[in-house]
């Protein structure tokens, strides 16, 4: 016979709130995959450029659509976010930033830096 215990079950996503560093870690992996997929779009753009004036004009009309521009800026943000998180990993490789207060501080700096770099790119382009 098995006895019923009043122990709680393991927490799940409806109960457990992921810390900021966990969310950023998952986001870093997702942006890596999205950047790889985005490179296929870049290759398609270069191919369109190589095909001549008519294909270039068609590509320009597609790129000027608002949804494509939104995807483009999302790609740029993902690129800067991935870069900033990579720099954070370099700090971790030398053993810096593992204290609980520094983990959240660096995570917020990383998000702010990615946003600032994206905004600076938007302003200067």
Describe this structure in words.
By secondary structure, this protein is mostly helical. The protein contains four helices and no strands. The longest helix is centred in the N-terminal third of the chain and has 31 residues, at 20-50. The relative contact order is 0.11.
Q: Top keywords for this entry?
A:
125 residues, mainly alpha
Give the structure's gist in a few sentences.
The chain is mostly helical and 125 residues long. The chain has helices at 20-50, 53-63, 66-93, 100-124. The longest helix has 31 residues, at 20-50.
Biggest beta sheet attributes: none
Strand content: under 5%
- Oligomer state equals single chain
Molecular shape? elongated
Quote the distance from N terminus to C terminus. 72 Å
Overall mean pLDDT: 89
Order of helices and strands: HHHH
Low-confidence blocks of residues = none
Helix-residue proportion: over 70%
Radius of gyration: 21 Å
Number of strands: 0
Tally of contiguous helical segments: 4
Q: Helix/strand-derived class?
A: mainly alpha
SSE diagram, text form:
Layout (H helix, E strand, L loop, with lengths): L19 H31 L2 H11 L2 H28 L6 H25 L1
